[in-house]
Amino acid sequence: MILTGAEIKREHASGRIRIEPFNVKNVQPNSYDFHLGDTVLTYKDVELDVHKENETEETLIPKDGLLLTPNKIYLASSREVIGSDHYAPTFGSKSGAARTGIFSHLSCGLVDIGSHGRLTLQLHVVQPVKIYPGMRIAQVIFWKPQGEITLYDGKYQGAEGPQASRIHRDFL
């Protein structure tokens, strides 16, 4: 079952959904719009190795925009802290962003129940396009789980900005 916008507002007010900062203007019929943070990470190496931590470079997104180009991995984050111990959030691009060729996540848009932090977005573009800090980039949807809940306590918990892959920790 997916929550309606009215239910997202009620569950946020009750503390069962965390969105900080929360703005009622971002509530949609069955989702909540969230904004792009101020930085992006890019990998320094052309070839990445999942067995090791890959070096990244952080770039502040200028107020006059940052041009993204195809065939490069850009990791960004939501400006908002988002999570729930009661619902399973998923997220995807806002249709306006997608229609300019900005895809905020092509896979793994599921946020585990119990995860709280800024969502990391893997930005992919099909042609050069500018992004801006604070732009509405994506929307989060909340799903009611069925069955016993086990809260997430993994390697990305409490993320404060874009997070590079930590897959190398799976090999330790």
From TrEMBL:
Any one GO molecular-function label of the UniProt entry: dCTP deaminase activity
Keyword NADP in record: no
Keyword entries, A-Z: Hydrolase, Nucleotide metabolism, Plasmid
Enzyme class: hydrolase
Gene3D superfamilies from the UniProt entry: 2.70.40.10
GO biological process entries: dUTP biosynthetic process; nucleobase-containing small molecule interconversion
Protein's name according to its UniProt entry: dCTP deaminase
Organism: Nocardiopsis eucommiae
Gene from which the chain derives: dcd
